[in-house]
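Here is one chain, start to finish.
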Amino acid sequence: MSRDTSFRATGLRIGGGETAPVTRALPEEVPVALSYEGSTQAVMMATPSDLEDFAVGFSLTEGIVATGDEIAELHVQDHETGIDVQMWLAGDRGAELSRRRRAMAGPVGCGLCGIDSLDQAMRPLPRVTARPVLDTDLIIGATDALRALQPLHDETRAVHAAGFLTPDGLHFAREDVGRHNALDKVIGALARSGTEAAKGAFVMTSRVSIELVQKCALAGCGMLIAVSAPTARALRLAEEAGITLVALSRNGQAEVFTHPDRVTGEPHVA
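Its structure:
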């Protein structure tokens, strides 16, 4: 399986009274199996980059491990039909996972793949007590800063990105065809570098849906900034979880929907 992140396709551009050949880069999406103790736990369609970060972030946000240190070994293996990320867990984590194992198959647009009950879909979240305080100007410029760190999007115009914002700028930008995959990659990168998610904000190029709020809460991050609007359910979930939800961050403006006390300056509270 190739690790290329894009593919050059040829076609015809039509309309405007003429037809012309066109060449366009398209993002690759490949099946990525996430396996523990030799057994596959999930298969997600993802961009084949930063897969170690993806695996660690997924393990954390799915509750498979509590810290990145509980993954004792991690190996990325290429196969003809996809990529298998093999992980072995420390202590009793492997036995705990065997007791709760569920089969999961994840299309790229889905962030709640493999959930088999309504209770699991709306699982209780820890209340976030992190106190990152970020300036209004920094927040409203965050999505522009992220946009400047998206080489795959520049090439394909078809992938999402996530990053981590602190008072000294944007870090750990990651791209993927799935918005939830991109966020998992950032969470994994933070864990692997020993950086606390409580010290900053996640920044997203997408709308805010409930799985992004869930991942934010489970990572212990107190703020989520996105270029598009949230769903109503995501807004209510952010309010309950104690997360500052900043949306519609574009063109020098943003709207703060929940917990505006983490924003300095004069935010617009919807």
